[in-house]
Specification:
Layout lengths: L4 H24 L2 H26 L1
């Protein structure tokens, strides 16, 4: 399986984003903020997966 540079940098970016926002949500600890962070992280991961799929076509 061959990965393009966009896929690799996208994965690194998503990983850093989720780690930063997840840590922020954990340190704040408010349930509404944790829910918002979870939804936004899921949307970002979904968009990344869809862009990788469209790139491979």
């Amino acid at each position: 399986m061959k990965f393009s540079m966009n896929t690799i940098t996208g994965f690194i970016g998503i990983a850093l984003f989720v780690a930063f926002i997840g840590g922020l949500a954990e340190s704040i600890g408010a349930l509404p903020f944790i829910i918002i962070v979870s939804i936004i992280s899921a949307m970002a991961i979904y968009d990344f997966v869809e862009s990788v799929r469209s790139e491979r076509k």
